[in-house]
Structure formats: structure tokens, C-alpha cells
Amino acid sequence: MCLAVPGRVLGVEERNGTRMATVDFGGVVKEVCLEYLPDLQVGEYAIVHVGFALQRLDEESARRTLELFESLGMLQEEFGDPWEQAAQAGGEELSGEVRR
């Protein structure tokens, strides 16, 4: 599933002529393109879909949405643990121990 998830902007920088942001999605931090919201600032919230900030959002709405997604397990489904996802893709289950 590919959700549009609210996140808080932690930092903004220009990369190769494109404004990019580091965004926190309830503990998961990702890089996001600000092409559609070029005036988005550090500390503001936005709805992000497939790596693009699409719409500004107030803090209360963002927090409620993140809490709802978390309670439904949707954040784990969306972001997940990359090691667990890789193991599942390889047909293995993680049992808490390192496999070699």
C-alpha cells in the first residue's frame, strides 16, 4: 500500500536545483522533494506521497493522523523494518537472531 502520510520538516536544503527536506514521520525519517510546496519551512507539517510533499497540514491534524495510522499498523506497513522486509522477500523469517 502507498499512503499519503503526514510528516514534520526537520531540515531543508537545495540539491542540484531542487529543494529537498528531511521529514520525520512519527520516528521514521525520510528525504522528501518540495517541488510542489517550495515555501515549506522547518517545523511545518505536510502530507507526503511517494516522496513528494503535496499539501501543508496543521500540527494537530498531522499528530492525529499519525496516531491513527500507528494504531492501525499502517505506519509499520508503509515504512516497516527494512531488514525484516528484506528477509521476507528472501523467504526467511526473522526470529531475533542473526542468520549467516
UniProtKB/TrEMBL annotation:
Query: What's a Pfam family this protein contains?
Result: HupF_HypC
Q: Which residues cross the membrane?
A: none
Instruction: Set out the biological process GO terms recorded for this chain's protein.
Output: protein maturation
Q: Which residues form the signal peptide?
A: none
Q: What's an example of a GO molecular-function annotation for this chain?
A: carbon dioxide binding
Family the entry assigns? Belongs to the HupF/HypC family.
* Protein's name in the database: HypC/HybG/HupF family hydrogenase formation chaperone
Annotated source species = Streptomyces fungicidicus
